[in-house]
Amino acid sequence: MRLLHVVGARPNIPKLAPVYRAAARRGVAQTVIHTGQHYDDVLSAAFFRDLEIPPADINLDVGSHSHAVQTARILERLEPIVIAERPDWVVVYGDVNSTLAASLVAAKLGVPSAHVEAGLRSGDRGMPEEINRIIADRLASRLFTPSRDADETLRREGEPADKIVFVGNVMIDSVLHALPRARALEPRWGRSDRPVVVTLHRPSNVDDPHRLTALAEALVAVAADHQVVFPAHPRTQERLRAGHLSLPGVTVIAPLGYLEMLALVDAAHAVITDSGGLQEETTVLGVPCFTVRTTTERPVTVREGTNVMVRAPSELPAGVRAARRRANPPHPEGWDGSAGERVVDGLEGASL
Amino acid sequence: MKILHVVGARPNFPKLAPVYRAARAAGLDQIVMHTGQHYDDAMSDSFFRDLGIRPPDVNLGVGSGTHGQQTARLMERIEPELVKHRPDWVVVYGDVNSTAAAALVAVKLGQRVAHVEAGVRSHDRSMPEEINRIVVDRLADLLLTPSRTADATLRAEGEPEEEIAFVGNVMVDALLYAVERARVTGARNRVGVDHGRPAVVVTLHRPANVDNLTRLESIMRALREVAGDRPVLFPVHPRTRARLDAAGLDVGAVKLMAPVGYLEMLDLMDAAHAVITDSGGLQVESAALGVPCLTVRDTTEWPETITCGANQLIYDPVGLPAAVASVHRLSQPPRPEGWDGMAAVRVVDCLRTR
After folding, report:
1. pTM for the predicted model, two decimal places
2. Same topology for domains A2-168+336-348 and A180-322, yes or no?
3. ipTM confidence
4. What is the pLDDT of residues B189-228, one digit of tens each?
5. How many angstroms separate the CA atoms of B261 and B266, rounded?
6. Four-CA torsion B277, B280, B285, B291, nearest 10 degrees
7. What single string gives the DSSP state of each residue in A140-156?
């Protein structure tokens, strides 16, 4: 069996790593393509190191552009590679533009694609990630789901039962794999042991000046009670500058590598985020998570985990103040560190 | 209300034409964008004339390439146009690469997409058209279907009821509008059809038929046999001609012709004993004319042409001569629900009221 993995941005790499390692242990031939759709290759390289997998075999260097232009570059540059490699599976991850583009290339070439993290839906088509998810799922020959509600979603969309394989959460494999090393790091921030960690990058939060102002005010209020550490996406920093928003008391830093970020979150009193992955990571770490969005594609984190949806930023200070870490972190079904193994089982056992 | 139509290849034009005319009658602002994904522009221009609509407002000149290259160029060139025109609806047709690419670009820009000919499936994912269909239907906000079967397909795929609208078959609108003008082209006389023995009209272009030499040889053997009995007219797609030439296949008495315009093709079919094809559109058009169709494929996206008795799937070419000998023109052209010439009016009603 020959696998061709396609990743495009940092959030993909903790999903790739456990699948890659499980396949490597079984001697499966595999090639990793990094489309380079993310702005910071340096950080991407650090992610591969932090997750103990070799760097990508091929980097397509597509860079950031509009959605159409970026997707176009990926289509053009990936197609000849899939033709040359003729893998048994093109394996795609999550919900970035590379996920969609690689699925489309594979489908047109008659190569089966497998989607890791299938069946997630926010129900909000205004999010480009939602478009990427629904197309990757529709085109895939194997749908690897992280939760039972994702299975149900795919069945409702008419996907045949034999395509849907519940494997659990591969990102949690990476958390559990990396946690001992993260905990051994010297902490670089903090006058306190329990900071509040913030990440914001979604257009709905950072591109609307009113919304961004309200969020900034809330973070400043939270900073009265807790140290607030905000690793900010360059795009978010740019928006803050453009809006002349200063964040007194908030430590704004550059984005972190995987291990450092995990260490920071693991030590946190709470997390305020609009990211998808952090909603899950905080659950297994028992850290309260406040998601500043109206929808989540990961409802199991709210139902069973530590996640709370927050519509109005003004609710944050009181919410964070009342939050308590969980002594016994919840572990939803399949969040057990072996999801990557089950993905490879599903690829090996697949009869098409 | 402003609508922007995206078309890319010849099979899209007979679907666009009735919608364009109905929208004009309703006083809507409209822009026609031709992506130029098809290689022969001359052919496309004559198609617009034949269909009674003006040439496209925008031509993106994308040209041919691999699916990846072509889809990439389509997306890059469509995006700035959609940003510039900001239409209320992006209307896409059928199942070509332009259909899927335009839908992807529009949805990412937050523009609403209507798909004309939604819910059509061959259930064969090795056909690139099938990939385009499932992508566009997943993305579109308004799914305008040609048949009740298509409605059921979309429901089974979990599409919400309020996005699905049965309108009927716009290709039949185009045909009913054009059939009288087709008869005055005199095409059937020019090609020297023996009126005692109406001809069999053939089109083939799918990779599954023309890229596989064994299969192409076996189809040509069957056509030579049919041509021993009655005239066989074969307007040849350049792609197919290249394959025939490369293989040096004997065409016998089969009359190879350059591709013909929409009206001429309609007249040839209308005069024919039967049609042998692997095209989707011709299955519908021959059925609407009451001309028996023999489809050299193992699947069809138009099951209603079979249930109404006009079409049969003959996957093994060996069966073609006997099938040609046994079919008869239907005394009344069948009219499945929605094959009434009013589908485009219903399309425009949906666009205006949603």
Report:
1. 0.93
2. yes
3. 0.92
4. 888 666 678 999 999 999 899 999 999 999 999 999 999 9
5. 9
6. 30
7. -SEEEESSHHHHHHHHH
CATH of domain A2-168+336-348: 3.40.50.2000
Whether the Cβ atoms of residue A276 and residue A298 lie closer than 8 Å to each other = yes
Cβ–Cβ contact A108 with B under 8 A: yes
3-state secondary structure of A164: strand
The string of pLDDT tens digits covering residues B297-322 is 999 999 999 999 999 999 999 999 99
Whether residues A125 and B107 touch (CB distance < 8 A) is answered with yes
Chain A hits for B76, CB-CB cut-off 8 Å, are: 68-69, 72
CB of A128 within 8 Å of any CB in chain B?
yes
Q: Give CA–CA dist A48/A7, Å, rounded.
A: 11
Quickly name the fold that domain B184-326 has: Rossmann fold (3.40.50)
Of the candidates B107, B108, B157, which has its C-beta nearest A157's C-beta? B157
Domain limits, chain B: 2-168+338-353, 184-326
Residue of A nearest to B152 (CA): A158
Query: Per the structure block, which two tokens stand in for B126?
Result: 């090795």
Instruction: Name the fold adopted by A180-322.
Output: Rossmann fold (3.40.50)
CA-nearest of B144, B109, B99, B83 to B5 is B99
Write the CATH number of the domain with boundaries B2-168+338-353. Answer: 3.40.50.2000
pLDDT class of B73 with cuts at 50, 70, 90:
very high
